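Human:
Take a look at this sequence-structure pair and walk me through the tokens.
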Amino acid sequence: MARTDWLNERPERLGDLYRRLGRAGFWIQAVLLAIAAVLSVWVLLMRLPAAEAPPRIGLRNVISLASLLILVFTTFWFRRYARVGERLADPAARPGDADLLRLLWTGLWAGALGVALSLLLMLGSVGRMLLLMLSNPQVGVILSPGMGAEQSISAIDALSQMALLLMMAAELVVLGLTLWLLFRTQRRAKPATDGT
């Protein structure tokens, strides 16, 4: 029976890669997450009606919150990559191949789910803008807020789009760096025999 030896003769190099990409991924996501959170709060505050009934929580809000929570998860998940990189350099604490694969696949699936949710939100937002633009082709983009919130495109819509795009960019960073780590980990694998 064959097994895989993930940590061939140079586990320190693989550990260094995990440390560097783990730290880079964490900080890139942290900055993008902070900007996206500020923009999301701004959009939420600008959309709150002053004297009307409290706003209802729709499916879009739930999906937005889920996407933001996934981004928070993947941001801190990348800290684990850096910690695993330190463990790879220590022969006594070195994780096994199954642990590395589980770590990477969790990051990959979390990032993929975040991208799927962000894409769903962006399709809804862009679809709404397209319908509004097509309903008034002679004017193009309606800038007058006096026509009602449902019939105009405002700067708040642009801020919302920017927040969604920043969240997606961070999630794509998660996917790209995790795939690179997975590729490098598997490339270093050498088939070995058990002796059975």
In short: The longest strand covers residues 2-5. Residues 97-135 form the longest helix (39 residues).
